[in-house]
TrEMBL record:
<dbReference type="InterPro" id="IPR036188">
    <property type="entry name" value="FAD/NAD-bd_sf"/>
</dbReference>
<dbReference type="InterPro" id="IPR050816">
    <property type="entry name" value="Flavin-dep_Halogenase_NPB"/>
</dbReference>
<dbReference type="Pfam" id="PF04820">
    <property type="entry name" value="Trp_halogenase"/>
</dbReference>
<dbReference type="InterPro" id="IPR006905">
    <property type="entry name" value="Flavin_halogenase"/>
</dbReference>
<protein>
    <submittedName>
        <fullName>Tryptophan 7-halogenase</fullName>
    </submittedName>
</protein>
<dbReference type="InterPro" id="IPR033856">
    <property type="entry name" value="Trp_halogen"/>
</dbReference>
Amino acid sequence: MSPSRPPQHVVIVGGGSAGWMTANLLMHQWRERGVRITLIESSEIGTIGVGEGSTPFLRDFFRHLGISEQDWMPACNATFKCGIRFPNWSTVPGYASYVHPFFNQEDLAIGSQFFTNACLRRRGTAADANPQDFFIAAELARQGKAPLYAPQHGGPSNPGTDYAYHFDAGLLGQFLKAHAESLGVRHQVGTVAEVNRHENGDIAALRLHDGTVLAGDFFVDCSGFKGLLINETLGEPFVSYQDNLFNDRAIAIPTALDPAAPLPSETVSTALTCGWAWKIPLSSRFGNGYVYASQFISDDQAEAELRQHLGPAADGQTARRLKMRVGRVEQHWRNNCLAIGLSQGFIEPLEATALMLIQFSVQCFVESLEQAEFSRRNQAAYNRRINQMFEGVRDYVVAHYHLNTRQDTAYWQANRAHGRISDRLASILEVWDRGGDFEAELTRHGNALMYFRPSWYCLLAGMGRFPATLQPPRLGHVPLSALQARKETAGIAGRFQDHRAGLAQGLSLA
Ligand SMILES: Cc1cc2nc3c(=O)[nH]c(=O)nc-3n(C[C@H](O)[C@H](O)[C@H](O)COP(=O)(O)OP(=O)(O)OC[C@H]3O[C@@H](n4cnc5c(N)ncnc54)[C@H](O)[C@@H]3O)c2cc1C
């Protein structure tokens, strides 16, 4: 590949979300430059078929491609997501459930009180500090509202509320496929049987089961957990995260929506005995599942527990059982091959970060090619950057497990006790616990953190990570109470649009 020139024929293996997101991003970027892109997808090997929640960065993905919410959301049964609620992770009184909200300009008044209260409380002063009481997004979710103003309050404008989406993963794949094809991506159905390589180790061509040979000068491995090109062909080592992220299995069971009930606008991630259960509202149904650790619970026990958790809604619904490979490859870009999606790695879905990592990985790749001369050095820099992203997300996810206070099962006790957390996470927790300068501590880690100040505060305070003994507040400095904060956020949330009605009216921003 010559300096600053994209490859001329890119071959993508895999037609899951990773393959189609990559095809769209690369074609959008390079189609004016005569680049050809072929995506090969097996009709015998299915896609993972789950992955129904996003982070707010998916908004940038669609904006970048020029696709409006009106276009893609109805086609994918999508809903708005104001944050994630975490019931039963903590046993600290007052903290049995908390929220990781997306943030809002209107939070500047009440939300900022949350940070003050959390700081008081971690330094030993009594103050309410559960984020679910202080943030507009949490109240929107409680009221079944979309993160957009109602028409009578100037809607569908948005007062700077960050938000994300829930969607049907299969429909998203179909939507992205159609868009990629409209940009000129060629879709070929076939199963790769053999990979031919040049003498220098680069991939030269793929031979399909039907004998077709497909040559290319750059290959993207979107083949899912097996890593057909990156692991099986190039032999890239896999760095497992299983020593501090125990969950390696999932069971998914859809349930029906109640058309008469408000449509929720949050993901609920409830801790169960050996993992956690997701509940994701789409416009057509709920997606549910249990993410668990096979060393602590059998598949049959996990399915029984999930069915009990879901109640009669799960009766007669078929369960899908999935295995997860949790960790990342050492190098995501090696020779003339880039691994994207589950082939490059996966951090279990607690914070719904996988599509965000796909998006960042492709965008960074394009920048690496376009900003600098192609060299081994910028390939190494790319791999370091992506590894840093994975480690940044991993630390934040690991913190959820490490901070749990449940005593009921060996699973939760082991998650708290194993001690195999990164030095960075250990340092963040140490500064929080001793009441040190938390802002300075987060700043010190800079880009290595994938989650910033509000998210860390919500997690640590939300779990009730505070000293056991508390002093009353100083006279004249009474912190804002949860009751008062709720009253004020409820008033603001009242100006927002009902979620179900908003979707039905095609209410969206872009
Ligand atoms: C339980 C669970 C929950 C998740 N929840 C979320 C979430 O909430 N949010 C989120 O962002 N992500 C989530 N994810 C991750 C998300 O599902 C994936 O990151 C995303 O779907 C991308 O998958 P993929 O395209 O890499 O792989 P896959 O969907 O597995 O696709 C692999 C593709 O490769 C093709 N293929 C394989 N071998 C060959 C071959 N030999 N020849 C030709 N083609 C081949 C297959 O046909 C298929 O098209 C979750 C994952 C799991 C397991």
